[in-house]
Amino acid sequence: MTRRLSLALPSKGRLREPSWSLLEASGVSPQEPGERVLQAHCRNADIDLLFVRADDVPEYVQDGVVDCGITGLDLVYERETNIEVLLRLGYGTCSLQAAVPMEDSATGIGDLDGRRIATSHPRIAARVLAERGITAEIVPVAGSVEISPRLGLADAIIDLVSTGSTLRTNGLRSLGVLFESEAVLIGRVGSTDFEARRILTMVLGSVINARANRYLLCNVSKDRLDEMTALLPTTGSPTVMDLATPGVVAVHALVPAADIWSLLPKLEACGATSILTLPVERMVP
Ligand code: AMP
User: Fold this and answer.
1) End-to-end CA distance of the chain
2) Which end of the chain has less Cβ packing within 10 Å, N or C?
3) Which residues sit with their C-beta closer than 6 Å to ligand 1?
4) How far apart are CA 27 and CA 216, in angstroms?
5) What is the DSSP letter of 3?
6) How many other C-beta atoms can be found within 10 angstroms of the C-beta atom of residue 259?
7) Of 34-38, 60-64, 65-69, which range is least confident?
């Protein structure tokens, strides 16, 4: 028997909605908490949820307040917590980038040597700069990092970027990426609750994997089957079934969602008809 598992979820901010919808998609049916509720239970699974700020999740997990948590990888590194990353969740993707005002002469991260850099990620920034042999003065700021150069607080910034539009809006130019982040499921180091954690990791992982794939169905004449299956960007073997119409077969395969755009015209050109792609709910290898 597995005991109840406690899971910390971001209560607000960018990671709240996608974390919530991941739990819903994985079928555990979390009970929607009210605005001020800090705890909830899941209907279909032995999981207790605790709603806390994403920044606090690494400490809660490290200190054993909860068994597992969802947070950003950047926050795990910034808090320098000793936890295990159990699963990368594929959302909340962003990168820590160094940027300077458009008119600055710097062309690469190496040009930041000896300069003042504002950041709300002082620990990761210091670590990644040191790894590159760059000595800079880190100016820790809590928010609105992008305006620091204009205020004369710093020459450059190091900040999380997803699309780059905030940098552009503030007249800044990226010098490059220092660290890639995404939402992660984390667990306590030395936890003995292996089975409950394994099940949570497997169930969430099955949804993450499924989201990245589509189930493809199409018909093709038997004499072009080899040509058609050679086009499929799949690792597994496609399913091939005879149809009532002689000489025509149905092909079913799992294909990466990112390849659908380039694959469809090729399948069409190969004589495939009745092409359907369907979302996949779960994939357990
Ligand atoms: P919050 O400040 O609560 O909205 O969430 C911040 C977390 O969201 C960060 O620690 C990152 O893991 C993630 N994130 C994703 N994209 C961005 C972005 N463009 N800027 C800041 N944080 C981001």
Assistant:
1) 24
2) N
3) 13-15, 54, 72, 74-75, 92, 94, 160-162, 181
4) 24
5) P
6) 17
7) 34-38
